[in-house]
What we know:
Elements: H1 10-17, E1 28-30, E2 38-39, E3 45-55, H2 66-84, E4 87-97, H3 102-119, E5 122-130, E6 134-144, E7 159-163, H4 168-177, H5 183-190, H6 196-201, E8 208-211, H7 216-226, E9 230-234, H8 242-259, E10 266-270, H9 275-282, E11 289-296, E12 300-305, E13 308-309
Parallel strand pairs: 4-5, 9-12
Antiparallel strand pairs: 1-2, 3-6, 4-6, 7-10, 7-11, 8-10, 9-11, 12-13
Bound molecules: adenosine-5'-diphosphate (ADP) and magnesium ion.
Amino acid sequence: MAARRPALDEATLIGRYFARPLPARRGVILGIGDDAAVTRLPAGHDLVTATDAIFAGVHYPRGTPPRAIGHRCLAVNLSDLAAMGATPLWASLALSLPRARAAWLREFAAGFFALARAAGIVLIGGDTVRGPEGATVTVQGRLRRGTAITRSGARPGDGIWVTGHPGDAVAGRLLLARRGGSRALRQRFLYPQPRLREGAALAGVASAMMDISDGLHADLGKLMCASACGADFDADRLPLSRQLLAAVGIEAAREMALSGGDDYELLFTVPAGREAQLARLTRRWALPVTRIGTVRRRAGLRWRLDGAAFRFRDRTFRHF
Length: 320
Ligand code: ADP
Ligand code: MG
């Protein structure tokens, strides 16, 4: 039985907002409009697939601008491709809406396609249903065969690195709720930038990698657990942004950087023997890259500040 459809009929809605001419040479044999898409992977590559769903009131506040929602549902998925070191190819979008409103759809599509173009990913299909406001996106990318950067490759002695400024996004989210504060911070929550170029460049350099979505401390725990290691960290080295420090002060800034979430930065480990290679690579990046700790054999995460144990409130986002 078919699901109930939004008021604007589905074919019109798809044709108007989502079916775009396909750029040549992306391996798409058949795109939107048939029962399924057909694509072809270049020879010598592995296929990488990730799915993430975002729903109003759960993953973003109700009333978030539709352009930011269109950006976000793709960005959080591209961030997973980046964390594998993969290059984006194709996306599929399952959109759920309580009602089909032209202005909302236009803005959502503008946010989605602006990022898709920038990231070089092509929308090849999806589904449209009536339901709570949310979007589920599946992305696929490619890797040269056998070069995926997993979570399990960290070894004792490896340095632990992070891109960008963790903590900014959660501060932006709080400021949005209060309808004020630094525009730069609010944009960091509304328009997360997947670190695709950086992730792909780290193949052959990083021993393990993941993206930060739930909060730096919680995600570090997952990385170390997957690698069966622990780690020592220096809270002094946290790359706190100027805007975050100005908005909340150093103590709250540290707490937000550690347990905030929604950062979509890359977290990765690098063996000592490849640090020179990393330095050569990152010299050309506009994005800051900071070493915050070292992998050790014993399980657990140990944070230190000025030579003493550093404790903080862990307010990590819980899914359930
Ligand atoms: P079916 O009933 O066979 O699933 P649909 O009517 O749901 O077909 O979809 C028709 C075509 O439009 C398919 O190619 C599907 O992938 C595509 N499509 C549906 N919704 C979306 C969407 N939100 N974004 C992109 N493509 C979509
Ligand atoms: Mg369908």
